[in-house]
């Protein structure tokens, strides 16, 4: 009985948990909680970024349509102004660098002068030995290095100052040339700058969360590796290596993923095989990381209107209008002065072709705009009443313009048919326009409910 009791006591001592296991398990649980919490925050941050991007593009598109072509005319000025600001910051940095180099050079010269003065004043008491010579040489070398750095900083400062002066001159020239367009388009570029700052701040928050998630995953993987090492040590102490965990890669657990973190390699073969395996960490890569996020500046530039021929077409999903200062009066279109010399039949044919081409182009633009406005609330505003009123007003104006254009076109073709010209009936276009108008009316009724 005494022998069996001793064996039971030894078994209990062997089965007692290593205190390191409890520590690593706590680290594992802490890392898991951090990963889950940070990924929730990352999801919210990405959602906020998308909302900000949609809202920014919506506001910029609306502002771009109101201002028209003056944005394109004023663009070189604002680009030059941005370059001038960057050049000014670089010039200020070069100035500070030159000032520091000048101060270091003056201090080094003063040190050498004081050392020489003290030695000369006490030359009858001190002896010029090797230590004094070495100290003086070291101070002289510092003076020479400081003088070299001062010369380089001065040259760099002059270069940056020249670049800044040229940038300022270009800004003044562009301001004198496009003064009216610059003043008119200033609200757009101010709004764009504000949107860009907000998006950059949110993007920085996303990048910070991603780094914290990677750090938490690294801590999780480290805890797993430490637990594996502790387990192997315990099996070695017990002498039952046959019951140790099988070598080779682990199978991913339920809800686990592979971390993109390679553990450090060990000197032994067993630890090397274990370290080559990627450890599993909780969570899933549900969110786009900042490396795949869109470029903010290019996305905001897509909101601007690009002029092509006589029409202005937006590079994004929305299709823009003409400059609001230009009235679309289709009933007052006339021929150019150089067509007066043509025969009457040729002039009439040219006029009909020109009017038809312009009408087709404007009709297609208006149709696309009706479709764009039909889906605009889904693209993302926050549903505020003021923005909804602006959208409804713009949709009503577009539908009215489309109806007016279709009526003018139908009247023109009817008169052409009565005069004997062979033209195709506009029934298909009328049906399509009525379909677009019906879609817009249905959407307006839905929004008003």
From TrEMBL:
Q: Which InterPro entries match?
A: SH3BP5
Pfam families listed in its UniProt record: SH3BP5
Q: Which UniProt keywords apply?
A: Coiled coil
Q: Name one GO biological process term.
A: intracellular signal transduction
Statement: the UniProt record of this protein carries the keyword Coiled coil: yes
- Biased-composition ranges, Low complexity, are 264-277
UniProt-annotated stretches for the region Disordered: 235-295, 311-340
The question of whether Chloroplast is a record keyword is answered with no
So what family is this one in?
Answer: Belongs to the SH3BP5 family.
User: What is this protein's record name?
Assistant: SH3 domain-binding protein 5 homolog
Annotated organism of origin: Anopheles coluzzii
């Amino acid at each position: 009985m005494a022998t069996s009791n001793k064996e039971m006591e030894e078994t209990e001592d062997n089965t007692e948990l290593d205190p390191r296991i409890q520590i690593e398990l706590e680290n594992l649980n802490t890392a898991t909680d951090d990963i889950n919490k940070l990924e929730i925050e990352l999801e919210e941050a990405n959602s906020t970024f998308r909302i900000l991007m949609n809202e920014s593009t919506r506001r910029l598109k609306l502002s771009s349509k109101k201002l028209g072509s003056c944005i394109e005319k004023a663009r070189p000025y604002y680009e030059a102004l941005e370059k001038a600001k960057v050049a000014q910051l670089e010039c200020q940095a070069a100035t500070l660098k030159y000032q520091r180099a000048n101060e270091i050079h003056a201090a080094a010269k003063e040190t050498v002068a004081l050392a020489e003065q003290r030695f000369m004043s006490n030359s009858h008491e001190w002896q010029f030995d090797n230590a004094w010579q070495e100290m003086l040489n070291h101070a002289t070398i510092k003076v020479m290095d400081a003088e070299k750095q001062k010369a380089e900083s001065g040259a760099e400062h002059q270069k940056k100052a020249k670049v800044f002066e040229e940038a300022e001159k270009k800004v003044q020239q562009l301001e004198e040339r496009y003064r009216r367009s610059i003043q008119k388009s200033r609200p757009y570029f101010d709004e764009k700058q504000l949107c860009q700052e907000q998006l950059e701040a949110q993007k920085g928050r996303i990048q910070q969360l991603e780094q914290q998630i990677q750090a938490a995953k690294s801590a999780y993987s480290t805890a797993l590796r430490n637990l594996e090492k502790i387990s192997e040590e315990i099996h070695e102490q017990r002498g039952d290596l046959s019951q140790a965990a099988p070598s080779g890669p682990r199978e991913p657990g339920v809800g686990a993923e592979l971390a993109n973190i390679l553990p450090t390699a060990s000197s032994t073969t067993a630890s090397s095989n274990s370290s080559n395996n990627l450890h599993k960490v909780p969570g899933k890569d549900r969110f786009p990381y900042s490396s795949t996020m869109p470029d903010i500046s290019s996305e905001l530039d897509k909101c601007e209107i690009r002029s092509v021929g006589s029409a202005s077409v937006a590079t994004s999903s929305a299709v823009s209008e003409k400059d609001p200062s230009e009235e679309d009066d289709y009933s007052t279109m006339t021929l150019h002065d150089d067509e007066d010399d043509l025969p009457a039949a040729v002039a009439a044919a040219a006029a009909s072709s020109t009017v038809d081409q312009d009408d087709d182009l404007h009709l297609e633009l208006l149709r696309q705009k009706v479709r764009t406005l039909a889906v605009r609330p889904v693209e993302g505003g926050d549903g505020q009443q003021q923005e909804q009123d602006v959208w409804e007003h713009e949709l009503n104006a577009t539908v009215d313009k489309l109806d007016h254009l279709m009526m003018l076109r139908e009247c023109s073709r009817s008169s052409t048919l009565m005069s004997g010209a062979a033209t195709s009936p506009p029934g298909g276009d009328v049906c399509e326009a009525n379909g677009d108008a019906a879609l817009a009316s249905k959407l307006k009724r839905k929004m008003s409910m």
